[in-house]
Write a structure and sequence with these properties.
With about 950 residues, this protein is mainly beta. The protein is built from 9 helices and 63 strands. Helix content is about 10%, strand content about 35%. The strands form 15 sheets. The chain has a 9-stranded antiparallel beta sheet with strand order 51-52-53-54-63-60-59-56-57. Its EC number is 3.2.1.23.
Length: about 950
């Protein structure tokens, strides 16, 4: 009985094996020879011909850029080809192939190699040399393999191509040039009767079409596709649609319609699994091939716009390189997820692939998380790919990328680097017939001009009827551009029905870790530090500016006053999403003051209902608490239907004078003494000794208990200077008042009382069309440890980059960050800070102070930021002095422009015509010791 039972079990196992093996054979089996990405590599044998670690056999991680593994030499695209080492790399790798693969067609697939690749299997050529770095290529190596035994792969990679047009298109472009097998390598085994690839066109109305490319099709009878929405319902209720067609040719067209189709948009990226099955004459499965697709319809309507699923879209986009400082162009699925999430966190809905097709998992993530994509055939200003290699690479790009619903347009090169002979080939090869752009050019229905000045947005140029879509604008060199100027540009672009949006240059700084320089970062001067983010995705100030300006929930500007009724005018700038599907939460905030441990009291967040359809304007009405005026700020946070933060808006509830008046310390001293010291006036009260210049009234020095607080040489009135007309200093009872009058009627008044506070009131009329206006003091930068303040922060602002900094209680330690240069610490310490209410300036030697602001709309300027090494037009002039209290500040430029939008203009002041008298700076200094530990 026991023997019979064992025999029965053996038969069951055998039957299971016989059933499973054919099924497995019907699937495409993938075996990686390399790792899967930057976070998963395999060591191969490697020989580099020149540069670092050259002239010897050693090991290299695959995939990788060989420079980042310490081989060869670094090149930026602007380096002349004749000056480059033009090193080559020879790779060797041994691998096993199962004996049963004899029944399969086996291909070796390279997702990308820079730049010319010669592939040999067991000493025999796998096929022609592949030229072009960013494209997936493959060889059928079925006849070259030793099945059941060990095989050797050998790849010779030339960093620079033997084809001159490839070098011009790829290797002289404005980005870092790397060498090596930088994307994964793997084997594909599938039945000899197989589905080679599919090209899908799935429309928003449910119409489905696919061209299915077959191998050995005469042995097949039927092709069917099963379409299932993702994710599959957890209850197992699969809404599957099956379409089928007889096989009569090497390319089978399958058509049909999906009822109640769920469409793809970047706001709701619904997708379907499409399982294609090739059947023989008995209905047995020969091969199964799976794609993930999305149903959506793209229309480019002449002299109108881009429509997706019948809705006109505005592309809020960014240009992105595949890049990390340590790995160069080698990426991973985790990096793609991180980057797409970061882009969406900035409220962007589009990304341009600059200037090459990306790693394919990046497109998968754009599909699944939701971004519009411009996919690009490489080319950069120079002569493009020649017709032969260009067509081959175009075929490879479209064959790999055609089915991604995220891709809505193709780019043929960049800035004059496109081959016009290939335009018709895009149409021939793409089943979806997506339109083709020539970035930087007027072509077809589009004007994609780059780095336009603000006046260009008047749309009075010679392409009024073109759809305006700048594929690069707001160049983000160092801290300029990107968010700086975007508010002006975007409002004009938003209001222009013929503008389809635009793409900021660019996502992140391309600073490479140089292995020949102890991993120090190199941006090739000012060629590559032009990201919204730093090289390690540090959030620069423009990140938050873009996030606010491109928020799909738009708040009309308003100030909160005692008459505030809780009403905000808002607009729904989503394309497809109603605000009823979003979440809005309201909270009221109270901040601790100076001299106290940082504490933020926040009321419980309460939801508020908002119901506006896409494109609608309306109101958001708060349920106001009875004691709302006791708070310092109002916060409203919006989240999208997936819980992703859209933005948090914060409004101060009280004016600075109200906050400062309530916070001023009330300590009283016994007396106050005024002395005439010959060239200066001295005031002694509490533990303070204050010295004023007798001729100018400027502050000479302050000492507390004998410790000098090095604030001096102020107030220096900025914007309209004149000789001093009169200085008067006198003591009346317990108050010392020093008044200074200038010949142009500007004046300031010092007041020192027994409360130990130094009061300053400045009344002045600045010049019209001024860069900056206000007052300045000197304070040695070497003496500052940090600052804590109530106002807009934590990032600095410019006149043309006011949004993104939010009202709150902030703190940061001193740093000397030069945005975009190595060793950056964010947020930057130095520069302009808006809406200042009070600030604690922390000194290194217990020599800091606190300043309270009673005037509205005052900018606190903390020192002068160090200019970058190659500033281009991002260089800025700052006021004299070190610490300033300003009514107006200046704008920052970009690499190419000084930013010509209205916000970048000089500040106007028409004395005696518009303004009621002079501007007023009213501040109070408290020189009691600042606790650096709070």
């Amino acid at each position: 009985m026991n023997v019979i039972f064992k025999y029965y079990c053996f038969l069951l196992v055998l039957q299971a094996v016989l059933l499973v093996t054919p099924v497995k054979a019907q699937q495409t089996e993938v075996r990686y020879l390399s790792g899967t990405g930057a976070d998963n590599t395999v060591d191969w044998d490697f020989y580099c011909s020149a540069g670092m670690q050259s002239g010897k056999w050693t090991k290299i991680a695959v995939p990788s850029c060989w420079e980042q593994q310490g081989f060869g030499a670094y090149n930026y695209g602007h380096d002349p080809l004749k000056k480059r080492l033009n090193e080559t790399g020879t790779y060797r790798y041994q691998f096993m192939v199962p004996e049963n693969w004899k029944r399969f067609e086996v291909q070796i697939v390279f997702e990308g190699a820079m730049t010319d690749a010669t592939v040999r299997i067991n000493g025999r050529s796998a096929g022609p040399v592949h030229q072009g770095a960013f494209y997936e290529f493959r060889y059928n190596i079925s006849k070259l393999l030793k099945y059941g035994g060990e095989n050797e792969l050998q790849v010779l990679v030339k960093k620079n191509s033997d084809n001159a047009s490839v070098n011009e298109a790829e290797r002289t472009a404005d980005f870092w040039m790397f060498g090596g097998i930088f994307r994964p390598v793997y084997l594909e085994a599938k039945p000899k009767v197989n589905i080679e690839r599919v090209a899908v066109d799935a429309k928003a109305d449910g119409k489905f079409a696919a061209d299915v490319y077959l191998k050995n099709f005469r042995q097949a009878a039927t092709l069917q596709v099963k379409l299932t929405p993702l994710p599959v319902n957890p209850d197992g209720n699969v809404k599957e649609t099956v379409l089928s067609v007889p096989v009569t040719d090497a390319v089978a067209r399958i058509n049909g319609t999906i009822n109640n189709v769920i469409t793809w948009t970047p706001e709701l990226p619904n997708r379907y699994r499409a399982v294609f099955e090739l059947l023989d004459h008995k209905g047995a499965l020969l091969h199964r091939y799976t794609e993930t697709i999305g149903f959506r319809t793209i229309e480019v309507r002449e002299a109108d716009g881009i429509y997706v699923n019948g809705k006109r879209v505005k592309l809020k986009g960014v240009n992105r390189h595949t890049f990390t400082p340590g790995c160069g162009r080698t990426s991973s699925k985790a990096i793609s997820i991180r980057d797409v999430n970061t882009i969406k966190d900035m409220n962007m809905n589009a990304v341009r692939m600059s200037h090459y097709p990306p790693e394919k998992h990046f497109l998968d993530v754009c599909d699944s998380l939701g971004l519009f994509v411009l996919d690009e055939l490489t080319g950069w200003q120079k002569p493009p790919y020649d017709d032969m290699v260009g067509l081959k690479l175009l075929k490879e790009m479209i064959a790999r990328d055609v089915n991604h619903p995220s891709i809505i347009l193709w780019d043929n090169g960049n800035e004059g680097g496109g081959n016009y002979n290939l335009d018709k080939e895009f149409t021939r090869l793409d089943i979806q017939q997506r339109e083709v752009l020539h970035p930087w050019q007027q072509f077809g229905k589009f004007n994609t001009a780059h780095y336009i000045n603000y006046d260009y947005l008047a749309h009075d140029n010679h392409s009024q009827r073109k759809i305006f879509l700048p594929t690069e604008f707001m160049h983000g060199l160092y801290d300029g551009g990107a968010g700086a100027g975007l508010d002006d540009y975007w409002q004009k672009m938003w209001d222009d029905p013929l503008c389809a949006g635009g793409f900021i240059w660019d996502y992140a700084d391309e600073a490479v870790e140089r292995k020949d320089r102890n991993d120090s970062l190199d941006t090739d001067d000012n060629h590559a530090p032009d990201g919204i983010l730093g090289p390690y995705l540090e959030k620069e100030g423009s990140y938050y500016t873009v996030k606010e300006i491109w928020s799909p929930v738009f708040f009309e500007q308003r100030y909160i006053t005692p008459e505030f009724d809780g009403r905000f005018n808002i607009e729904n700038r989503f394309i497809y999403t109603g605000l009823k599907d979003c979440r809005f939460e309201v909270s009221w905030v109270k901040f601790s003051g100076p001299g106290k441990k940082t504490h933020i009291e926040k009321s419980p967040a309460k939801p508020v209902a908002v119901s506006l359809e896409p494109g609608q304007k309306g109101t958001l009405q708060l349920d106001m608490p009875s004691n709302w005026t006791r708070y310092d700020a109002l916060c409203i946070t919006a989240s999208d239907p997936f819980g992703r933060n859209i933005n948090t808006w914060t409004w101060p509830v009280k004016k600075p004078a109200v906050v400062a008046g309530a916070l001023l310390p009330g300590t009283q001293c016994k007396d106050i003494q005024l002395s005439d010291n010959g060239s200066s006036y001295g005031v002694h009260t509490c533990s303070l000794k204050i010295d004023f210049d007798k001729k100018t009234g400027a502050l000479n020095s302050v000492a507390r208990n004998g410790v000098r607080i090095p604030l001096s040489n102020g107030p220096y009135i900025i914007g309209r200077t004149a000789p001093v007309k009169e200085v008067v200093c006198k003591q009346i009872q317990d108050t010392v008042r020093l008044s200074v009058l200038y010949e142009n009627e500007n004046r300031f008044d010092w007041s020192v009382t027994t409360d130990g506070l130094l009061h300053l009131e400045v009344n002045y009329k600045p010049e019209n069309n001024n860069r900056f206006s206000g007052v300045s003091f000197d304070f040695p930068e070497s003496e500052v440890k940090g600052m804590r303040w109530l106002g807009n922060g934590p990032y600095r602002v410019y006149k043309n980059r006011m949004k993104g900094a939010s009202f709150g209680l902030w703190e940061k330690e001193y740093n000397n960050t030069v945005t975009g240069e190595s060793g950056c610490v964010y947020p930057e310490f130095k520069g302009y800070h808006a809406e200042t209410y009070w600030a604690e300036i922390k000194g290194k030697q217990s020599n800091g102070f606190t300043v309270y602001v009673f005037s509205d709309d005052i900018f606190l300027r903390m020192f002068t930021p160090q200019p970058p090494a190659q500033p281009a037009k991002t260089a800025m002039e700052y006021p004299p002095g070190n610490i300033s209290f300003l009514h107006s500040i200046n704008a920052i430029g970009t690499k190419f422009d000084t930013q010509q939008g209205p916000q970048a203009a000089l500040t106007q002041f028409y004395p005696m015509k518009i303004y009621e008298g002079a501007l007023n700076v009213n501040i109070v200094f408290d020189f009691k010791q600042v606790d650096n530990e709070k």
